[in-house]
Known about the structure:
Elements: H1 48-55, E1 76-80, H2 81-87, E2 93-94, H3 96-102, E3 110-114, E4 124-125, E5 129-130, H4 132-140, E6 144-145
Parallel strand pairs: 1-3, 2-4, 3-5, 4-6
Amino acid sequence: MVSLHTLRRTTKRSLQRVGRGQSSGRGKTSGRGTKGQNARSGRKKRPEWRDIIKKLPKRRGYGKNRGRTVVARPRSIAISLQRLSEVFENNATVTKKALEEKGLVRGKERCKIVGGGTISKKLSISGCVATASAKAAIEKAGGTVA
């Protein structure tokens, strides 16, 4: 017959309870140090970054807070008429590829021809955007803008 004094424990004994007497080694402050916020139950310090983030204004509008809707546009490089006349010969064709070869534009950058300075050479421009004043100056010199 089985009696209480012959029973064997089948599970692991639970951990010692803290804060129950001096002799246990975990009495009084129970290993939490001294008084204050850290000694209380729960013991969660409020993260200061949360306060900083909550004070920042929200960016209103559809899609502005979502990274996948933001598209990085290629940079547009402004090229003056003065620079074109220095780099290209008379009757030359100015394309994006020709501008890349001359070192005026790199990779995915877009080119825009602006009317800075004067031009006396006849240039044929295609594949680049030109301002109204630049277009008028190129056509006055005998060139074309497509």
